[in-house]
């Protein structure tokens, strides 16, 4: 079955440093979504990437979808304490039952003020 | 304002005693999902309803059942909870299942004693 690997599992940064989390799928994806889950909270949708090589920005967050549509990354520039949380990628297969979102294990980001 | 509501937020049940968790939505979305999330892990899809059509995941134990009496409500029934079923249970909705983002409720934390 489809597997979505996400690294690193944990990342601790000083406020102001950059942060990147990477996501790799064992299969080609039709689209990939990113969610943020604050400690004690629930996942909140950030963005969806659909096209090969797509890059989207949301303020200090930059999302990329690989050319082969099998990998993705989330980069945060100049982290702030409000960025603390677990970032999950979630991918959908490109064929067959393409409804299911398979979540990566997430990257827990902590920020030292 | 709440879009996906889960009740109760915390549930304590005894080993083997049936329990029902509820989810309601004000978004009029076609799809409702139930996820299980254990500490520091990714959400794991248990099943989903696409309108009235129930879709079970192959690895979801028979102990877990679901009902969707109407568009707005969906229930998760755990027939005989075991200690391993202690987790956060997240309900999510989406407009459709192929490419739309999922809106998560706040979750119900289930404790089994």
What attributes characterize this protein structure?
heterodimer, A: 113 residues, mainly beta, six-stranded mixed sheet, five-stranded antiparallel sheet, 11 strands, 0% helix, B: 113 residues, seven-stranded mixed sheet, four-stranded antiparallel sheet, 51% strand, globular
Q: What is the rounded distance between the termini of chain A?
A: 41 Å
Helical segment count of chain B:
0
The largest pleated sheet of chain B is described as:
7 strands, mixed
Intertermini distance of chain B: 34 Å
- Topology pattern of chain A, helix = H, strand = E: EEEEEEEEEEE
Question: Briefly, what is this?
Answer:
Chain A has 113 residues and is mainly β. Chain A has strands spanning 4-7, 10-14, 19-25, 29-37, 44-49, 55-58, 61-65, 71-76, 85-93, 102-103, 107-112. Chain A has no helices and eleven strands.
Structure characterization notes:
The complex is a heterodimer of chains A (113) and B (113). In chain A, strands 2, 4, 5, 9, 10 and 11 form a 6-stranded mixed β-sheet that branches. Chain A has strands at 4-7, 10-14, 19-25, 29-37, 44-49, 55-58, 61-65, 71-76, 85-93, 102-103, 107-112. In chain A, a hairpin with a 2-residue loop joins strand 6 and strand 7 (61-65). Chain A contains no helices and 11 strands. Chain A has 113 residues and is mainly beta. Helices cover 0% and strands 56% of the residues of chain A. Chain B is an all-beta fold and 113 residues long. Chain B is built from no helices and 11 strands. In chain B, the strands form 2 sheets. In chain B, strands 2, 4, 5, 6, 9, 10 and 11 form a 7-stranded mixed β-sheet that branches. Chain B is globular, with a radius of gyration of 13 Å. Chain B starts with a strand and ends with a strand. The model of chain B has no long low-confidence stretch (mean pLDDT 95). The A-B interface holds A 30-31, 33, 41-45, 48, 50, 88, 92, 98-101, 103-106, 108 and B 40-45, 48, 50, 55, 57, 90, 92, 97-99, 101-107.
